[in-house]
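In line with agreed milestones, the collection of sequences with tokenised folds has grown. One record among many is set out beneath this paragraph:
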Amino acid sequence: MRDRVAAVFNKTGVVKNGERVEILERDRRFARVHTSSGAEGWIEQRYLVPQNIFDGFQKLAQDSQSDPVQATATTRNDTNLHLTPGRDTEHLYQVNQGARLLLLKREAVPKTLPGEAPHPANTTPGAAKAEPAMEDWWLVRDPEGQTGWVLGRMVDVEIPLDIAEYAEGQRIIAAFVLNQVQDADKQVSQYLVVLTEPKDGLPFDYNQIRVFTWNVRRHRYETAYRERGLDGVLPVSVSKEDFGKEGTLPVFVLHVKDDSGNIVERKYKLNTPIVRRVLAPGEEPPKATPRKHARRKSSGH
């Protein structure tokens, strides 16, 4: 804060991000404020937000406090936390480069720059209608417990290096530890990995999963299960369940959209190295995809 609105001024105090101040008067780009510690001074109005924006962030944090964490990520640069997804939306808090964030939820919105209209994705002459370019945003919680939306490309999801190399050109959304197995003198984690195509704006959070189990004889990860073509919606949950003679096994639950657009649950169990669906009472087993038969074409003319 400064003592006057002029090129030369004295510093009267410092206010921190998120601190509440009382506005005493305004003068063009500046406002004279009074802090909770009793200090007064002038500050640029662009550094202030009204009380309702702060209240909105408080409500966002409260509404999402029980949301399960889907992954952790680190910020590439100093990054603003937005009240809603979008570059031109209100923001209050800022997290530093390298901060570790908890990822809660994903949403795709039209790509915009502050004060601009959405950028069209399809500008081909003769195209029926140009669809807006989309980009991914994540609802996150920072180390101080502050909650907000960040641009997806501003964060790097933390994935164990031992399985990151198996992405095969796909984008790993999250990796969940299912359990651990003993290999000599070390415990090795076995993972459920959810993946998607390497681009923003897709109508699903993920469209494929892989389960990596550890081969204790060959001392390496192997793909125990893979499923593609999913219309997956976060969150994914992992727990354990008693299956009688099989014992207590790790289970994971996916949320996917069916052909009607309804979100349904799919439960799976891992009895290393076998992964199987766990059907709910009354649930029909998945239909097998029919095989296509063909005959060898004659080589004659």
Notes: The helical segments are 51-63, 161-164. Residues 1-48 form a domain with the SH3 type barrels. fold (CATH 2.30.30). The chain has three domains: 1-48, 52-115+132-156, 159-278. The longest helix spans residues 51-63.
